[in-house]
Amino acid sequence: MAGEQTIVPFAFDPESDPEAEAQAVQQQTADQQRLQQNVSEWCQCGICEIMPTERENRCCMEIPQVTALLGEVAAEPACMLDHPGFEPVCLNVYSLQTAGRVYRHHFGSLRLRRTHRRFRYLAYRQFVAWCWGFLGRRIRVVIPACVVLRIRAEYPDDEGHCTGFRLPRV
C-alpha cells in the first residue's frame, strides 16, 4: 500500500533533559534537608524562622528578584523587611485596600470575607507584584520566610491557621 502513513507515538513530545532532572532531584534533597537544619544554616538575613514545609524555607537573600530590589536602595538593607518600600507596599492598610479594588476590577469579587485574611492575601500579591511583576495565571513563586512571617504578624489569622505555599490547581 503505497502512500500509507505510519503513526509514530510520542514523536513530537520533548525529550527529557537529564541535567534538569538531576538539578530538580538535588534541589528537592536540599529542600528536605532544610527542615532538619538549624535556620541559621540557610537564613542570611537573620530574621527567618523554620516554616512548615521545606519549599517555604527560603531567605530573602537567596531570591534574585528580591536582592535586585534591595540593591536599588543606597544603603543596601540586610533583609527585605528593612527595605523602605516594604511597609508602604505590602503592609499599609490603604495600599492593600487599593490593591483589593484593583483586584475586584480585574478578576471580580475577592471571596475572602474576614478582613485579616483578605489583607494577608493582598499583601502576598503586592509583594509578588513588586518583586516579580505580573506572573500570569497559575504561576506561583515562594515568598521568603521573613516576609511571610512579617505579613502574618501584621494580619494574623483568628484561628491561627495559615495555609502556606500551595502549588496551583491544574
Please indicate the count of domains: 1
Specify the overall morphology. globular
Biggest sheet: strands, sense, closure?
none
Q: How many beta-strand runs?
A: 0
Percentage of β-strand residues: under 5%
What is the distance, rounded to the nearest whole angstrom, between the alpha carbons of the first and last residues?
Answer: 44 Å
**Average of per-residue pLDDT values:** 82
Question: How are the secondary structure elements laid out?
Answer:
Blueprint: H1 18-36, H2 64-71, H3 86-91, H4 93-107, H5 115-132, H6 145-154
Helix pairs in contact: 4-5
Task: Sum this structure up briefly.
This protein is mainly alpha-helical and 170 residues long. It has helices spanning 18-36, 64-71, 86-91, 93-107, 115-132, 145-154.
Your description of this structure?
There is one protein chain. It is globular, with a radius of gyration of 21 Å. The chain is built from 6 helices and no strands. The model has no long low-confidence stretch (mean pLDDT 82). The protein has one domain. With 170 residues, it is an all-alpha fold. The longest helix has 19 residues, at 18-36. The chain has helices at 18-36, 64-71, 86-91, 93-107, 115-132, 145-154.
Task: Record keyword descriptors for this entry.
mainly alpha
